[in-house]
Amino acid sequence: MKKKVLATLLATAMTVGCLTGCGGGAAESPAAEAPAAEAPAAEEPAAEAPAADEAPEVEAPATAEEGTDPVANLIAATTGTVTLKVWASEEDQDLTNKLLDDFKAAYPDVTFDITLGAESESTAKDTVLTDVEAVADVYAFADDQINDLVNAGALQEVVANYTFDVVNENATGAVEAAAVDGKVYAYPMTADNGYFMFYDSSVFSESDVQSLEKMIEVADAAGKKIAMDISNGWYIYSFFQGAGLELKLNDDGLTNTCTWNGPGGTDVAQAILDLTASGVLVDMSDEDMATQIAEGNVVACVNGTWRAETAAEAWGDNYAATKLPTFKAGGKDCQMSSYSGYKLVGVNPHSANVGWAMLLAEFLTNEAAQTARFEARGLGPSNLAAASSDAVQANPAIAALAEQAAYATPQRVGGNFWSPAETLGQILASGNPDGTDLQELLDTTVEGITAPVE
Amino acid sequence: MKKTINSILRHLVLFLLAVVWLIPILWLFVTSFSGYKGINTSHFFPETWTLDNYAQLFLRSDSIVQYNRWFLNTLVIAIFTCLISTILVLMVSYTMSKLRFPGRKSLMSFSIILNMFPGVLSMIAIYFILKTFNLTNSHIGMIIVYSAGAGLGFLICKGFMDTISVSLSEAARLEGASEAKIFWKIIIPLSKPIIVYTVISSFLVPWGDFVFAKLMLNSGIATDWTVAIGLFNMLGKSMIAKYFSVFCAGGVVISVPISILFLIMQKFYVEGITGGSVKG
Questions:
Q1: Mean per-residue pLDDT, A69-82
Q2: From the centroid of its chain, how far is CA A212?
Q3: Which CATH number belongs to the domain containing residue B191 in this structure?
Q4: Residue B238 and residue A91: Cβ atoms within 8 Å?
Q5: Which of A231, A271, B146, B171 is within CB 3.0–4.6 Å of A425 for a Cys-Cys bond?
């Protein structure tokens, strides 16, 4: 009898356990999403919460106006070890490690426990939005993610500065990219997250690279290829925007307005078809480009500063870069547009040491750090003083980016843009194999891009 | 004559299948010796050969590639998971196979149905539950996740135990042996093949798992990672050009321990699977 009771009890316990397990799951996931959804409303308290905990730290900069040193106040208010977690991209690890050592050396009176993790700037948003509380105190991300990050309450507003004036010492475009509704939420780190044309000057002359048709002709004669990641919304945008068609983010911050299927749209699609039909302009992913440039098959490519090293290595003295060329759509020359972007460093408001995290974010993005980043990795500084140095001005990739800047637009686009644009790029780059009517193709694409977000 | 043609045809088909199956593995293997670090799609065999990728893997850890550490992490997690799950599976199988109690049948069907749901369904719930206990980013948390549900996978092991004659345990019971004694002294020594099978299969789960590891180890700190996460990270957009052949080397190395384990235990393994499938 006793055994029976025990067995029944155990069985019940197990069943209940299972049910609560499932119930927990159901209850847990909306709860997990709730903070993200409510964030806009809850943003203010979230941002203030750390301030309340660490009043001396965050208030310190405010008192700076009265003549005291905010950093000294911060140090005075700190007892015990300052634990910080930092995320930097994989390529930025060595440099960031060095900067972290410098940071520790700069404040010898404080004990730090700083750990450095790896998280690519381009995927930071995905990781951050999974669980905002588990995110590093200081992390780097690309500026197109800022709306979503702010909505999720994952960025501490830059309410005050410790060591330098973030707003006035950085390029205006960079500060605008770091701001949402006029409030600055991040520290600009680089100003080079855009694309332009790399070419081998032993193949192309400076006048050749003015027009894409001419480039194709020259490359064809040389038996080489021109590479561009056409099946990628980020790059295909350059054709449509260049022809005067519009794609922009609506005021709700989620959905898009797109006129790619409007008048002239089919001309652009036809132009892309014609350009790729030559077999000289090839659709190629970034990784393939690296190989093909090194192999000598690709003599020109549309890419960004991150490929500068590969190209410079392969082409040596013939390495050159310039703005994007023009292309013919509907009989007239259109200058290809591009996206301009910035990489930013943000501070997590859930950090236990917001003050120190902000100070560290400043340290990772100040003039010295940006200069070091340019020297180590060739990335274009957003800091005005660092950007005006002779070395930066003489860098071909950054000069090309500056040239392209006149035709570039900041990357502000809703998440629904990418997949339809990628599909469109794939279809056009493969020569429209099903022979779909171009207007129909563009209509479908635009329908996908402008689809509402639940 | 007809026989020879038949045989040639058959072997041709088998050969083609083998080629299809082996080419990716061969490519991974030869690329791991490539002198070019990035991904090279225009040559199957590398142009320059080197052992440097392996040297980099083991001897030159940087802040993002810490292979030795990942290997150790994975091994520790896999060993503990393996121990705990094996014990759980054996105990549950014994209970289901040798003991008679009310509700046994329904409990059994219930757990089999429960086990059919893919574990990833409860992933988010598990993450937040463990987070409240501060067990995310911890290897203990990983071990708990991997071994907690192991008992449900008793089916094959129970099938094997059903083939052990009831008279053995009955005889022992008549001699006054407790259930524990019957389990440890009689059933376990007779179940060696199925134990080997259980050990291998429960070792493989954490060894190759990606989904849970990716979810749980979200600190971004390379020293916390398992091999699966680390290798995946090496294929990231910014890493692949510099680490692809190192990744291949890592892929080759990760298969070594498990291959050795298989070769040694092969004999028992086959016996275990076939033994377990005999209906009792």
A1: 86
A2: 27
A3: 1.10.3720.10
A4: yes
A5: A231
